[in-house]
Amino acid sequence: xxxxxxxxxxxxxxxxxxxxxxxxxxxxxxxxxxxxxxxxxxxxxxxxxxxxxxxxxxxxxxxxxxxxxxxxxxxxxxxxxxxxxxxxxxxxxxxxxxxxxxxxxxxxxxxxxxxxxxxxxxxxxxxxxxxxxxxxxxxxxxxxxxxxxxxxxxxxxxxxxxxxxxxxxxxxxxxxxxxxxxxxxxxxxxxxxxxxxxxxxxxxxxxxxxxxxxxxxxxxxxxxxxxxxxxxxxxxxxxxxxxxxxxxxxxxxxxxxxxxxxxxxxxxxxxxxxxxxxxxxxxxxxxxxxxxxxxxxxxxxxxxxxxxxxxxxxxxxxxxxxxxxxxxxxxxxxxxxxxxxxxxxxxxxxxxxxxxxxxxxxxxxxxxxxxxxxxxxxxxxxxxxxxxxxxxxxxxxxxxxxxxxxxxxxxxxxxxxxxxxxxxxx
Length: 426
Ligand code: GAL
Known about the structure:
Blueprint: E1 3-7, E2 13-17, E3 31-36, H1 41-56, E4 60-65, H2 72-83, E5 90-93, H3 97-103, H4 112-120, H5 128-133, E6 135-136, E7 141-142, E8 144-146, E9 150-151, E10 154-158, H6 159-164, H7 173-185, E11 189-191, H8 197-212, H9 214-221, H10 226-229, H11 232-245, H12 257-266, E12 269-273, H13 277-284, E13 293-297, E14 304-307, E15 310-312, H14 319-332, H15 335-345, H16 361-376, E16 379-381, H17 391-405, H18 411-425
Parallel strand pairs: 3-4, 3-5, 11-12, 14-16
Antiparallel strand pairs: 1-2, 5-15, 6-7, 8-15, 9-14, 10-12, 10-13
Helix pairs in contact: 1-13, 1-15, 4-14, 8-9, 8-11, 8-17, 11-18, 17-18
The structure holds beta-D-galactopyranose.
Residues 37-38, 43, 69-71, 150, 257, 277, 307, 309, 385 line the site of beta-D-galactopyranose.
């Protein structure tokens, strides 16, 4: 085996095996029921790459889509299935929920996908940070496979609308507020937003990272630190949320995220704050960054909110399903798959050795920023997308954020309620 040195997310140099990414042998007779929430245009186009690869390798795919951005609905369906003793062969899931399911005893042993991971040396293909998110049994065995790294803290904007109004991409929250006010007086909706709890939380975490800074973000969303939650900084974060609310339109409550992206694509609205799956919608419509739309991280001190999409493999009976799990794991970690899938999805590969030359400027920027922020303390897990905190704590924060956004609750009251609600979940 050839070896090469590559940099991990955390900036460490490790030895990486050079693999072709060929599928794990023995696809014939493989079956998989796959639970996911990828139902928008860009998401479906990306998922098709996996479906097609699975079929090409002799697998039989049973689709189990549960619509609903952010996956809250999918997680409820998944829970019902697992509790009923009938888990899907593979399920889209993220972060600490993977280990939480393992603690319930429904994932392994045996951890069948770990055999594939060992044979293909996944440890050498992933940063230790991403690899650990995929491991069960005290972080010793792979029980899930990663397909990408999404960044959350992005502004997306319609280039024509910005250019026509003499606005450049904002590099501070004050600049954004000023641009939004200018657009509003020109009759344009400044911020396309769908006020669903997970979308409010998505915007909230970008604002918290920007206004609070990296350490504040970590204290609140990684350490669940009570004093940070009810601090004056948190009150400022809620103040900015109130300002942003004023830039949304009346149709915002309940709107799906991809409909909001569509408003930016059509020029009805100028900006959207959303993870880079939004870029999957732009590219799926044939639009190009720098020509039709702009991408720029939301203002922060070189922060980067990451979100790794992955699939968990529960304990399964039946050789065809076990084969299905192994084949899926192998395909997901394939080098070419990670390139093609992510070109559609808007994200960047989780594998460290995928060349970025075919990716667009947004993805290249994301990869460079990720490395920089990993070295300087800005790389933080997304709370809104389940990469940190328990589901109960995440839910408690999300509920307060969305209640504040959709009412006249004061920022002070919201910060206090958040701390109280989180305390009850710890
Ligand atoms: C995220 C997920 C993305 C995208 C988005 C909208 O949580 O990581 O892949 O699907 O939700 O549904």
